[in-house]
Amino acid sequence: MAQRPYIVGNWKMNGTRAMLSEARAIDRAAQRHMKVEVAVAPPFTLVHAVHREAEQIGVGAQDCSPNADGAFTGDISATMVADAGAKFVILGHSERREGYGETSELVRAKADAALEAGLRVIICCGETLETRESGKAEAFVAKQLKVSLPKVEDAGEKISVAYEPIWAIGTGQTATIDDIATMHAMIRKLLIEIYGEEQALEIRILYGGSVKPENATDILGTAEVGGALVGGASLTADSFMSIALAATESVEG
Ligand code: 13P
């Protein structure tokens, strides 16, 4: 892995202030993994608290509004999450695309708002099992990304992509190493078309979907995998930092 691996924990709708001790433990452990960029996206309610605890890890949000401010009851703007200490936001997660009908157009609008607020973005993509079985996974993901990805200078610094096959999320089932390599190679090609080679080669393409300490070494050792977006296994410092350790080892060889 030529790039500095990016290991991001997506806590989803898990965690109250009792989880701050876990965040502290992750932060302390991350100080021993300087060759890896470790980050956590807690629920909105914990962004500021985790930010205050964190010396080493990046803190992000799991979503933001495409709107800057105004009468949008219940929404949280990109400026608000940045003000709370977030440095990045995860956008277009399949749980939002599927559960809330978020389209790639909306993901793009959210990404524009996030970049405007000075946040980095992780743009998620991934197919259903039905799409994979019909042989259309790559075309589907390419279409999602073509519409979702924001146009921006310095894309390498500001954008990451997370490939998360929906059927692998929270199921214990991961894509095969071959399937991951094929999809990530397709995504890299697409990024080069969109951003040009210099920027595109800087963009880290994360894999997500049942990443665990037991499979992290194989997944992180796959060509074009620049890190992992981790759900369940990011909820304890022990399992999350075992994945960070696998990433450190992948760099050190
Ligand atoms: P799991 O690691 O729990 O499968 O979740 C993956 C995910 O959706 C991360 O965004």
Short note summarizing the structure:
This protein has 253 residues and is an alpha/beta fold. The protein contains 12 helices and 8 strands. The protein binds 1,3-dihydroxyacetonephosphate.
Please give a structural write-up.
The chain has 253 residues and is α/β, with parallel strands linked by helices. Helices cover 45% and strands 15% of the residues. It contains twelve helices and eight strands. The chain has an eight-stranded parallel β-barrel, surrounded by seven helices. α1 links the parallel β1 (6-10) and β2. The longest helix is centred in the C-terminal third of the chain and has 19 residues, at 177-195. The protein is globular, with a radius of gyration of 17 Å. Bound molecules: 1,3-dihydroxyacetonephosphate.
Q: How is the largest sheet built, in terms of strand order?
A: 1-2-3-4-5-6-7-8
Query: Can you write the helix and strand succession as a string?
Result: EHEHEHEHHEHHHEHHEHEH
Extract low-pLDDT stretches. Answer: none
Largest sheet: 8 strands, parallel, barrel
- Strand residues, percent: 15-25%
Gyration radius (Cα, Å) is 17 Å
Mean pLDDT: 96
Number of helices: 12
Amino-to-carboxy terminus distance: 9 Å
In percent, how helical is the residue content? 40-55%
Give the helix/strand class. alpha/beta
User: Which kinds of small molecule does this entry bind, naming each only once?
Assistant: 1,3-dihydroxyacetonephosphate
Number of strands: 8
Shape: globular
